[in-house]
Write a structure and sequence with these properties.
With 337 residues, the chain is of the alpha+beta class. It has one domain (4-11, 22-335): Replication Fork Single-Stranded DNA Binding Protein. It is 25% helix and 16% strand. It contains eight helices and nine strands. The chain has helices spanning 4-17, 93-98, 105-113, 148-158, 203-212, 227-241, 248-251, 320-335; strands spanning 39-44, 57-66, 78-83, 117-129, 141-146, 176-179, 181-183, 186-188, 193-194. Strand 7 and strand 8 form a beta hairpin. It is elongated, with a radius of gyration of 21 Å.
Length: 337
């Protein structure tokens, strides 16, 4: 395997000749664990943040594989998850390094290994599920980590001109059926679909919203890395590419491999934080499966789409039809850009 220095040298030469987690509040519903051929019916709910145009929020995580843990002779290969700075519309030091690799066929596979894994955070009710969970939370409002395959089904349906009401509407909304099959040895969710009939929330569901309130989804994103954390991420990336072991003494204060969460640091939960945060304001996230890879097919960075004007986000409350029209119009606008 090429070292990082060798990869950089090869790119420079070409240019000159011619760039899942442990403890938590258990709110995440692990739809990836449903049996093959099974379905789970869920009902998505709005984000509590009135400034979020959508009823989901995007997450971008990068996996850093290591040969093991330094000093542990019995250690197996481990993975550390770090947040991608493009989540905040800023330059990601890892993707800046990796993006040019896709111009070289011999480096493309390595590039995909270090490319960001994109997923989307939703919330809502599990309406019907055969999945046996060891423990379900008291609050029935769950969070969902959704990969690109299911997300595209959600988004494309919203682009359908026949949909007149937002699927999260309490009275005229729609349930969503997650269907799991397999294709080529991998989980496949392409047969997932929206319900055909509108369904008003039940009295129990409305009571749960009144009692517990909705989640502010942005609170479950990773903590944005500061200058020190970014330096640590760059060091870990270089060590990972060079095939080194994870140095707990050097980096463990900030990030830890899968299954090694402790009282210090943040581990690599699905929303990995760069430093500890008070439990009262940021519950510890649960282990999830990142099942989608958003690797590029060109070397140019994709523009980060974020609302730039206040009118991009509908105000809290107000007429539900107006909110639906605002959101669908925003999606269609972005689709054509």
């Amino acid at each position: 395997m090429a070292t990082l220095a060798e990869i950089r040298a090869k790119l420079q030469s070409s240019a000159q000749a011619n760039q899942n987690f442990t403890a938590g509040d258990n709110a995440i519903y692990p739809h990836w664990n449903i049996a093959e051929g099974a379905t789970a019916t869920v009902r998505f709910l709005p984000d509590a943040d009135p400034n979020n145009t959508f009823f989901w929020i995007e997450r971008s995580i990068i996996n850093l594989p290591f040969a093991g843990v330094k000093g542990d002779t019995n250690s197996r290969p481990v993975t550390v998850k770090v947040p991608c700075m493009e989540m905040w519309g800023e330059t990601c030091p890892i993707l800046t390094e990796v993006r040019p690799w896709f111009k070289d066929k011999s480096l493309e596979e390595m590039g995909r290994k270090y490319w960001k894994k994109k997923s989307y955070l939703f919330q809502g009710f599990v309406v019907d599920s055969k999945l046996q969970e060891d423990k379900t939370p008291e609050n029935p409002i769950r969070r969902f980590i959704i990969g690109s395959q299911i997300f595209n089904i959600v988004k494309n349906a919203l682009m359908d001109s026949e949909i007149e009401e937002l699927p999260t509407d309490y009275v005229r909304g729609l349930d969503f059926k997650i269907a799991k099959t397999t294709k080529g040895g991998y989980a496949d969710y392409s047969t997932s679909t929206w319900g055909r009939r509108e369904r008003a929330l039940s009295e129990a569901e409305k009571a749960a919203i009144d009692q517990y309130g909705l989640f502010n989804l942005s609170e479950f994103l990773p903590k944005k890395p500061g200058e020190v954390e970014l330096k640590v991420i760059k060091e870990m990336f270089e060590a990972s590419v060079d095939g080194e072991a994870f140095d707990m003494d050097r980096w463990g204060q900030y990030f830890k491999p899968d299954g090694m969460r402790g009282s210090s640091g943040n581990g690599n939960a699905p929303a990995p934080a760069a430093r500890p945060a008070p439990a009262a304001t940021r519950p510890a996230p649960a282990t999830v499966v990142e099942d989608e890879d958003d690797a590029p097919f060109d070397a140019d960075p994709a523009p980060v789409a974020t609302p730039t004007a206040k009118e991009d986000a509908p105000a809290a409350g107000g007429d539900a039809s107006s909110r639906a029209a605002d959101i669908i119009a925003m999606i269609r606008k972005r689709q054509t850009q």
